[in-house]
Design goal:
Length: 175
């Protein structure tokens, strides 16, 4: 019985050590800065793949479980299959596009480097049926670490308009 008690105590001690060793540690300030830079690099690479109409490259930066809200109010995407359909539809309507440099970038990474939130603005030049359109987008993305790399889990895109007062916007809609 004494041997059993000793083995049991030893087993609990080993489990305790194992659980402590598996606990995620908080990242240092320098490590958080590196993670933020890695998040921005993923967002930039995703934008490049998008403007090149390269869905296979885009998938490298997407999680399997994703949710996207587009600039169209009816556009709610909750699977990779739905995402591919929506993207291909967009690409059929656009001759070409080019993202500018991301601006006003805000990235927040959790202290363990597992989840990140990013908000940024980016100019987008598009050619649709030979016509040039210049847009400025506000984009929010949520990312998670998957297999040691950052992937996009969710996102929303808004097309900005020139600053107007609420009165001006209401008047414009009534016309």
């Amino acid at each position: 019985m004494k041997l059993f008690s000793t083995l049991l105590m030893f087993s609990f001690f080993l489990m305790f050590l194992y659980s402590c060793s598996r606990e995620d540690t908080q990242l240092s300030t320098e490590e958080l800065v590196k993670e933020k830079d890695a998040v921005v690099a993923v967002l930039e690479a995703y934008n490049r793949a998008y403007e090149q109409k390269n869905f296979n490259a885009m998938v490298d930066y997407l999680a399997n479980d994703l949710t996207f809200f587009g600039s169209d109010s009816a556009e709610t995407i909750k699977s990779l299959t739905e995402f591919k359909e929506a993207i291909q539809k967009q690409w059929e309507e656009v001759d070409s596009m080019k993202y500018g440099k991301m601006q006003d970038i805000f990235v927040l990474v959790d202290s363990k480097g597992k989840i990140a939130s990013a908000i940024f603005g980016v100019p987008l030049d598009m050619w649709v049926n030979g016509n040039y359109v210049h847009l400025f987008l506000r984009i929010a993305r949520t990312l998670k670490k998957e297999g040691g790399k950052w992937v996009i889990v969710s996102g929303i895109t808004g097309i900005t308009i020139a600053s107007k007062s609420p009165k001006e916007l209401i008047k414009q809609q009534q016309q």
